[in-house]
Amino acid sequence: MQEVFTKYVNYLEAERNASAYTVRNYTTDLLAFFQFLRDRGVSSLKEVDRHVLRDYLAHLMEHGFAKSRIACKLSAIRSLYRYLLREEMIATNPAATTSSPKLDKRLPSFLTTEEMGRLLEAPDLSTPQGQRDRALLELLYASGLRVSELANLNLDQVNLNTNEIRVWGKGAKERIALMGEPAAEALRAYLQQGRPKLFGTRIRMTNALFINRYGERLIERRVQRILEKYANTAGIGKRVYPHMLRHTFATHLLDGGADLRVVQELLGHANLSSTQIYTHVTRSQARKVYLSAHPMAQEKGNELENR
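Predicted structure:
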């Protein structure tokens, strides 16, 4: 299985031109699947049928994996088996007839404009770390970047004359993300003051936009911790994570009257259906505001909510 796995990873990187994020996630998910097969005494991928796959899905559910995470793991397995079928290493594809668990419909969490304002004001701008963190928060909110896209940004991808960012998203697809003047100003301050101080006198240069105190590229996990830190500082009473700022970006755009197709383009969604979830968020928010603000909705609120 190891030889097949190595060839498949090479295929992802060389032929499919998959992003590092995709390769990493598929690798993690497939290695866990291979371990399950070994534990069950299955020594070859040819021995896997839909019953084995269903046992694996049940195994994941028993161990508390969310349905969305199970669906991602199954997606990695399907991709592997499509490759095996194409290369004629197997005769039939057992993953083709294995259904994903039905996902619960959950609306994405987002911050209000007031909460977002408090979060942006939380960093201490008298320190280089604070200047970096303000620029990082401003950029996440202004552009709707994924945390992986933000962490992988290089200096030459940012144009502060046009307030544009060249981004390589999922599937290594290129798009242009935009930012407003507050984010551009925060980036200028960081690049002129904060970043040189973080880099210090080190000889080895890096093209990474956001760096840590050692002059190295800031990793995704660190971005998560930065958000958690400032959410606590700002007194936001809920867990704040990088993708929540992406949700906030999209929700606030639609609340402001932006066209759904424009939001789709800015987010880098391949399908409009991925963006349409935010219309449900804005409708839900509008209903809450209506029920709390309209004088004739107060008494009928529960009835309206149950419709």
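Summary: The first helix runs from residue 2 to 14.
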